[in-house]
Amino acid sequence: MVNLEEIKKEAKNILEEGKVKYIIGYAKSSNALMAAPTFVKKPEDIDKLIWDPTCFQNLVKFLLDEKRKKAREKEPDIRPVGIFVKGCDSRAINVLLQEKFITREDVYIIGLSCEDLGVLDEKKIFKKLKGEEPEKIEFDQRKNIVISTKEKTIKIPLKEILAERCLECTSSFPVISDVFWGDRNNRSPKEPFKSLEQIESLSQEKKWDFWQQQLSKCIRCYACRSVCPMCYCDECVVDSINLAITADTTAEEKSQKIKWIEKSPESSENFGYHLVRAMHLAGRCIDCSECERVCPVDIPLRLLNKKLEKVAKELFDYKAGLDPEQPSLVSSFKDEDPEDFIR
Amino acid sequence: MAEEFEPKIIAFLCKWCSSAGSDLAGVSRMKYPPNVVPITVMCSGSVSPLYIFNAFQKGADGVLVSGCHPGDCHYIKGNFYARRRIALVKELIEYIGLEPQRFKMSWVSAAEGKKYTKIIQDFVQELKPLGPQKKLRREK
Amino acid sequence: MEKILTKKSFPAWVKNLQSYTVYAPEKQENLWSYEVIQNPDKINLEYLNTVLAPKKITYPQREIFLQFNTSKEGKPQIKEVLPEEQPAVIFGVRPCDAKAITLTDKVFGEEPKDPYYWSRRNQTILVGLTCNPPPSPNCFCLSVGGSPHSKEGLDILMTDMGDKYHIDSLTKKGEKLIKAAENLFKPASPKDKKELEKIQRESEKKIKREIKDIKNIPDKLKDMFESPFWDEEAMSCIRCGICTYLCPTCYCFDITDELTSTLPLKGKRVRTWDTCQFPDFTMHSSGHNPRPDKASRLRQRILHKFQYHVENYQDYLCTGCGRCISLCPMGIDIIEILNKVRDYE
Predict the structure, then answer these.
(1) How far apart are CA B15 and CA B40, in angstroms?
(2) Do the chains contact at B87 and A211, CB–CB below 8 Å?
(3) Does B39 touch chain A (CB under 8 A)?
(4) Percent of chain B scored above 70 by pLDDT?
(5) How many angstroms separate the CA of residue C162 from the nearest CA in chain A?
(6) pLDDT tens sequence across A32-60
(7) What is the mean pLDDT of residues C217-226?
(8) Are A35 and A173 contained in the same domain?
């Protein structure tokens, strides 16, 4: 069992000892169904911290900000940052370590196992509530969620409203941590790629219709990119200007910058953006499915990344984020890699 | 009589083998369809998936990536990286519903002018019944 | 002019509006969105907030300004593209979203008037609906000078009264719509008017969230430009564009040239939405970025809405629709921020 009081005690200790600069954790937000990231700097603030299935966010994203901030400071505080990580989030840390974007000394990992659960899917809850607004929620023994709306109180078994990714999760506990709570039981979901089946079984034209309809909705708010802990390029292919320019960059160089993808939310441009993003996450996506959760127009983005995860597993026996020492998917190869598609 | 559809193929050819192979086809006066626009790159391993998607966005009906045979890469292992990456692109393209026949990869050495012409001939034949690629193409 | 229309005859009214493109909220999968309506019988006005405000119709995310081409002699040829003049009616506009349109009207109405915006705007008729109950738990229109039955910006305000609608026609454009099917409407009786008042009072009570003492906030913000407050508040921001793209009042845009061919030079110049939350929004060509971090961008969003716009137009650039709160992936809450601003120091 993950005991929040013990976590708080540890959080208080490391803050008091000055072991960490601050702790990135979860606190309540104005939305009863969603926790918000919080940044605890003082030991007296640790009571804000919470841990329950509403802790959706992958906080690893904030390590990228921390790295950039450190790079700007003249005399940066080099102490590590404490961070709450779930199983999936810990794999994100592994990928960042593997890519040498951060070092192990940059983080103090407070690992929290999801055990037999995971996080909730707000959309599934809204379906159950049929339009009523939740006012208060409570968890009853990690089995049920009790939601009070204006009119009534309903009890839903947690298993029915878990996020799709949690149902397909194979390691619900952090694979890397400094302190750890909960159990380390591997899960073995019968069908870890079940959510892909529906699209994979479609005919080619139907597949196109599906993705065309979904990606046409995109408004290019780039929330999927912004929330992704793997999206840390200084300059993204969709940015209209070169962010990596310096005062020395000549006008000629700037004018020669190729604009690969236009800003317009047109079908072709949207495909360009999402396909490039999917490719760039191949072998890096750790399936936290934050991109899909944050999408304001409900594009099932996880299904794009999950597909490449499956391909990587089946063709190259590669799984992202389990080992920071393994060479990355696209910067390595094996002699026996399939080549039956090549003439 | 309606004109027959002539597909446009963008071919990314590595400088050391495939591009030399296509040159051989040319200097040997071998005949093959003129539907292909070759783009010489330093190595098949340098072909970013972005190039491939962008070619489709700009109206390519088919895209070919061609490099040295395994073991022959001028940079020792560039084509091995390409092999992995292209496999991923191929799966992704198929998954989103673009006709998988529109995207090909081949190994063509500098001595294989004949093989190159055959690949292009077959590619054109395969693309003709599919008609123009409109799915990823930008509106003009 | 106040009228009564039974719910049964509502589709018949819409059917009489054939010369207009009719938009109404439509549920697509799980989300509501304003869409062109083909079958008036299917209009459902018991909808929750749409993801995108009707701004997407009056001020679309992308519009073409002009097309350019190079003639055979190498001369540039430029063709202006104005939107097609097509009268449109939007049903089910929330009063906050209608007020938002009046705010963008002011901005695009400054000389020189924006011809692209206005050729669309002049052709658009806004038919509002009183919010009873509020469409989102984060509604706070009362705090920013609106109300769930505000008439501002609307041509007609409809109010659901059980089996009928109270129809309040507010402008000439609105009159015209009613004239299209005059026999369907009955005049509102004094009893109806009384009931309407009761509904309106109730609807106000249902708005739960508020920003207290908002009047003091613009002045307070003036002294907070350099405050470390913004660093704290922006810690959990991930700099996506959700809050601004979904905002009914945000109007910033970018203009880019989209080339379809480089030789000969050919393409179009387009306007697309842009947002102050993206790093490239303020990027100078020298490489200097005056708003280099997310704290300065969050500050810009708040200050533009509650200080600069108040100074320039004497109104908040916020109508209290609550979209930025409901859909922020990290739970950043503009009401909480402003309440903290009010109590700062």
Answers:
(1) 6
(2) no
(3) no
(4) 99
(5) 19
(6) 899 999 999 999 999 999 999 999 999 99
(7) 93
(8) yes
User: Encoding tokens for residue A88?
Assistant: 């999936």
Tell me if C329 and A31 make a contact (CB, 8 A cut-off): no
Q: Which C positions 270-289 lie with beta carbon below 8 A of chain A? A: 270, 272, 274-275, 278-280, 283, 285-288
Which subunits have 3 or more CB–CB pairs within 8 Å of chain C? A
The first and second tokens of residue A71, run together, are: 């790079």
| Dist CA A24 CA A45 (whole Å) | 12
What is the pLDDT at residue A254?
66
**Quick one: tokens of C222?**
């003036």
Chain C, window 63-92: residues with a beta carbon less than 8 angstroms from a chain A beta carbon: none
Q: Which of B50, B77, B94 sits opposite A260 (nearest CB)?
A: B50
Q: Are residues A150 and A277 in the same domain?
A: no
Read off the pLDDT of residues C72-99 as tens digits, 9 standing for 90 and up. Answer: 888 889 999 988 878 999 999 999 999 9
State the distance between the two ends of chain B, measured CA to CA, in whole angstroms.
26
* Residue among C293, C318, C184 at smallest CA distance from C234: C293
**Chain A interface disruption, residue of B44, B47, B50, B81, most A CBs within 10 A:** B50
3-state helix, strand, coil in chain A (%, to 5): 40, 15, 50
Q: Are residues A174 and A295 in the same domain?
A: no
Considering only CB atoms, C330 lies closest to which of A57, A262, A264, namely A57
Per the structure, the complete domain to which residue A44 belongs is given by 1-119+167-189
Q: Which of C121, C123, C99, C128 has its CA nearest to residue C24? A: C128
Residue at B4 is within a domain: no
Domain that includes residue B83, residue range? 9-130
User: Using one digit for the tens of pLDDT, what is the confidence trace for C261-316?
Assistant: 877 888 999 999 999 999 889 988 777 889 988 999 999 999 999 999 999 999 99
Residues A180, A46 share a domain: yes
The 3-state secondary structure of chain C, one letter per residue? CEEEEECCCHHHHHHCCCCCEEEEEEEECCEEEEEECCCHHHCCCCCCCCCCCCHHHHCCCEEEEEEEEECCCCCEEEEECCCCCCCEEEEEECHHHHHHHHHHHHHHCCCCCCHHHHHHHCCEEEEEECCCCCCCCCCCHHHHCCCCCCCCCCCEEEEECCCEEEEEECCHHHHHHHHCCHHHCEECCHHHHHHHHHHHHHHHHCCCCCCCCHHHHHHHHHCCCCCCHHHHHHCCCCCCCHHHHCCCCCCCEEEEEEEEECCCCEEEEEEEECCCCCHHHCCCCCCCCCCCCHHHHHHHHHHHHHHHHHHHHCCCCCCCCCHHHHCCCCCCCHHHHHHHHHCCC
pLDDT digits (tens, 9 = 90+) for C59-79: 999 999 999 998 888 888 999
Residue B138 lies in a domain: no
Q: Using a CB–CB cutoff of 8 Å, tell me whether B72 touches chain A.
A: no
CB contact under 8 A, A204 and B94: yes
Assembly ipTM: 0.94
Cβ contacts (< 8 Å) between A38 and chain C: which residues?
Answer: 236
Query: Is-contact B84 A329, C-beta < 8 A?
Result: yes
CB contact under 8 A, A282 and B88: yes
pLDDT top residue among A140 and C173: C173
CA distance A139 to A52: 8
- Please indicate, yes or no, whether residues A261 and A288 belong to a single structural domain of this protein: yes
**Minimum CA–CA partner of B58 in chain A:** A268
Q: How far is C277 from chain A (nearest CA, A)?
A: 10
Contacts with B53 (C-beta within 8 Å, 6 or more apart), sequence order: A271, A272, A275, A276, B136
Dist. CA C5–CA C144, nearest whole Å:
31
Average pLDDT of the residues of chain C:
92
Strand partners, A153: A148
Average pLDDT of the segment spanning A117-126? 89
Give A190's pLDDT tier (boundaries 50, 70, 90).
Answer: confident
